[in-house]
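can u do me a favor
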């Protein structure tokens, strides 16, 4: 199994379909869940517009999209989903638009995985494994 990474830019929360993404060249081919989480974290830190958000989990509180705490929180959820063979979809505001990140799970024989949700999968965090 591996993951294909795609980026999209739009003025709202809509994006391309999984089938449309798989028909085009990916930004990256990611070989491990950790590599995929690192790519999402890097893209979020580099491109996210700083906005206050509420964090859920044992630490709760507020943070900012793109700050270290928020990225670590998302990384825990994403790593769990990726380890299960799932795709991960995220999007966030930039200054004048939205960036969509799609990490599509694909089997090593070239077939697309079935373990993905239409919307971003928000897995329950496993705080001890991070």
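np, heres the sequence
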């Amino acid at each position: 199994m591996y993951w294909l990474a795609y980026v999209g830019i739009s003025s709202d929360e809509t994006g391309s379909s999984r089938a449309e993404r798989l028909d085009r060249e990916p930004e990256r081919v990611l070989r491990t869940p950790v590599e995929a989480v690192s790519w999402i974290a890097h893209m979020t830190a580099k491109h996210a517009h700083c906005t206050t958000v509420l964090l859920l989990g044992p630490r709760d509180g507020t943070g900012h999209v793109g700050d270290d705490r928020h990225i670590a929180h998302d990384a825990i959820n994403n790593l769990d989903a990726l380890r299960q063979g799932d795709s991960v979809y995220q999007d966030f505001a930039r200054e004048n638009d939205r960036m969509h990140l799609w990490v599509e799970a694909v089997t090593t024989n070239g077939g697309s995985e079935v373990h993905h949700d239409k919307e971003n999968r928000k897995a329950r965090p496993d705080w001890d494994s991070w």
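The mean pLDDT is 82. hope that helps!!
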